[in-house]
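Escalation from tier 1.

The customer reports that the assembly of two entities below gives different structure tokens on two consecutive runs. Tier 1 could not reproduce it. I'm attaching the input and our single run for tier 2 to review.
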Amino acid sequence: MNDVKDGGPEKPRAIVIGHGEFAGGLVSAVGQICGMADKLVVLSMMGMTPEDIETTIRQHLERTGARVIFTDLPAGSATIAARRIVRDDPGIVLVSGINLATLLDFVFSTDQSPTDAARAAAERGKASLIVVGR
Amino acid sequence: MPILLYRIDDRLIHGQVVVGWGQPLNIRLLILADDLVASSDWEKELYRMAVPPDMEVIFADVATAMRDHARYASDPRPGLLLTGDIGSMYRLVKGVKAIGSVNLGGIHHRAGRAEKLRYIFLTPDEEQQLRELEAAGVEVTAQDVPSARAVGLPEILEGAAR
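Tier 1 run:
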């Protein structure tokens, strides 16, 4: 269920897009862990041209008012498309190479602007990687 | 070492290219033959940032790629040459006359194109160019990732593998 603030549902704070079911899977995990999946919009880029990917992201940014884009792979088509969007609007923040820790930190950082929260979440995501064993 | 893969992919440099093929083939030299990208410093920088540090990328327009193909092919590093459309690869193959196979990696839906495979959509003119390449002795197959089956041109054009 959406969080309610000021009498209405809270808008999504970011768009998540990646290869295959990556975005849907990560956001599903966010929902399962903390119930805050509604702060994220899932986009799939399967079967889309680069132009379609860019157009779709732009449409969802406009529709939702989100100012943050999360992508999976720095070399991916979605990241390339998002970088074109950031060039046109430097107020939008792109974070690429995300993991579940990144998104969890982001959705809980409601006391910051989404773009500041995204920057902090990127650092949390990097720090969450561990290696165990020899 | 010869260029290991000649690929047509409208997404240009992206995950399937640098990771999906780049890692198993140990690609260390990537040539992007694209007139638009070669003419724009911003586009080149955009795609350069998508390439891992152990892979060199060369940006060239198609005419330059034709001229320099022998140099690319004699480079000791395993190479991959990429174009974003069939027309560019067609020009390159016809101009170089030393390319034995072409991989269709991703040509997505646009107006005028018909679906042949999940990731291959072609206009009649593009179909004709591919037929001409194969008639000239160039093996044309579709294969998005190395683990997938390579689909031959007759089967692609038939659309039976959709």
